[in-house]
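Appendix C: a fully annotated inverse folding record. The material below is reproduced so that readers can follow the format used throughout the book. The structure is listed first as tokens, followed by the designed sequence.
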């Protein structure tokens, strides 16, 4: 088991190191990411994403849901999940349009039950009513990648070119524990919010030959502890069999999770200078105005992430159909970032979706074992552009493709398509996103070997 945990952290740290060291080439490109702390990744897991985003109520014996930590109590097998995505976007304003391709890591997670059901069967023990689960997750949170150029005429002075560039992003590393008893489950995530964001602003006068242009660079590292807590309750519908009440296989699951506002710190390097490329030297491609040049390293500021809450309800007929609805809200008017002050607005969102399995144990018809999923999501974004709050609407659909591994272990490849629109009236983005999730399951963890 230790070697798997070591491999998990090694891969996770390698992925983050690669992303942080390659910020000069943004993996995502969106002018919206100039505002706030960037574009949000949203739902990090392919299976939930395909159902519109049922994060509060989703739980599965073979899939992870680190967003609501209570869901890990439902695991019956160790689940190792890796998700990646590719995205095509078409940006459009009143004058022009542009096409953008991007992609990134979607999630890196591992979770397992702390009690192995095989041990209970072999020891002929009565099945415990207490369920324990644990998970670790590396979840990208926001992405920054933009390169914007604009021109403006300053009356009586000159025409001015503005240039804005940004790269980087933020992540969440989560450690979660959950406990389930009878129909209740409760869990807590403890984690760390971190990342690096680089912003650069430039101003150049076009007609003033010997004019110097302003150049401002900010390289900020973010860090802070975060948490959230969640619960799930399942109501089983009963049926009469031989005068006795038994579970009918139909049930309702109610779920909720959230967190209070949490603080973070920033450590920044700021470079403010005035340069002229017409006065190149033998050692530099430009000349810097020594009277207007300043570099500050180790500028320490603070900020605050908002309180967020999500709740939902899910109907399920075991091994056949699941359908539910989810609501979420974020108090982003309480967001604060001293290094880059910005006024954001509160958000709300609604999503709905379903999953259907024709015949989960079909022996010779593979397509009848596939999980077919579909959903819808709509909500607001905390960022405000020209006084208008951003909105996002999308439709999702996907497949859960089961794989039979050695020792009859069941694993999955989850494919999700998300098609929608985001932005404001003056600048909108139509997008098509493909998410691939790979889930490897193994129920031999914590298994007691026996020798005769």
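Designed amino acids, in order:
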């Amino acid at each position: 088991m230790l070697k798997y945990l070591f491999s998990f952290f090694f891969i996770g740290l390698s992925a983050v190191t690669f992303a942080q060291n390659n910020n000069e080439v943004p993996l995502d490109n969106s002018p919206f990411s100039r505002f706030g702390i960037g574009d949000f990744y949203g739902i990090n897991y392919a299976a939930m994403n395909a159902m519109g985003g049922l994060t509060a109520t989703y739980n599965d014996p073979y899939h992870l849901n680190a967003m609501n930590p209570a869901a890990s109590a439902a695991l019956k097998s160790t689940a190792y999940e890796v998700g990646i995505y590719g995205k095509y976007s078409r940006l459009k304003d009143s004058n022009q349009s542009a096409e953008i391709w991007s992609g990134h890591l979607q999630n890196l997670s591992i979770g397992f039950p702390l009690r192995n059901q095989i041990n209970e069967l072999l020891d002929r023990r009565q099945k415990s009513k207490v369920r324990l689960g644990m998970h670790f997750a590396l979840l990208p949170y926001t992405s920054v990648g933009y390169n914007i150029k604009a021109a403006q005429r300053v009356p009586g002075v000159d025409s001015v070119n503005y240039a804005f560039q940004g790269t980087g992003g933020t992540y969440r590393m989560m450690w979660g524990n959950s406990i389930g008893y009878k129909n209740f489950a409760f869990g807590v995530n403890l984690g760390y919010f971190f990342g690096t964001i680089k912003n650069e602003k430039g101003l150049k006068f076009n007609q003033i030959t010997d004019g110097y242009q302003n150049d401002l660079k900010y390289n900020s590292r973010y860090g802070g502890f975060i948490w959230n807590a969640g619960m799930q309750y399942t109501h089983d519908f009963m049926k009469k069999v031989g005068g006795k009440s038994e579970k009918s296989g139909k049930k309702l699951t109610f779920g909720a999770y959230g967190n209070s506002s949490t603080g973070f710190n920033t450590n920044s390097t700021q470079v403010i200078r005035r340069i002229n490329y017409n006065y190149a030297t033998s050692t530099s491609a430009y000349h810097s105005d020594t009277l207007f040049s300043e570099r500050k390293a180790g500028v320490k500021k603070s900020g605050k992430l908002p309180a967020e809450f999500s709740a939902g309800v899910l109907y399920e007929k075991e091994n056949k159909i699941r359908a539910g609805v989810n609501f979420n809200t974020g108090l982003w008017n309480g967001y604060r970032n001293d290094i880059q002050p910005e006024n954001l607005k509160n958000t709300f969102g609604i999503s709905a979706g379903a999953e259907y399995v024709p015949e989960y144990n079909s022996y010779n018809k593979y397509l009848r074992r596939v999980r077919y999923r579909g959903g819808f999501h709509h909500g607001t974004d905390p960022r405000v552009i020209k006084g208008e709050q951003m909105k996002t609407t999308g439709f999702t659909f996907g497949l859960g493709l089961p794989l039979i591994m050695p020792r009859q272990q069941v694993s999955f490849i989850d494919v999700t398509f998300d098609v929608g629109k985001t932005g404001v009236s003056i600048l909108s983005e139509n997008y098509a996103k493909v998410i691939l999730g790979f889930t490897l399951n193994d129920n031999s963890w914590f298994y007691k070997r026996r020798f005769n």
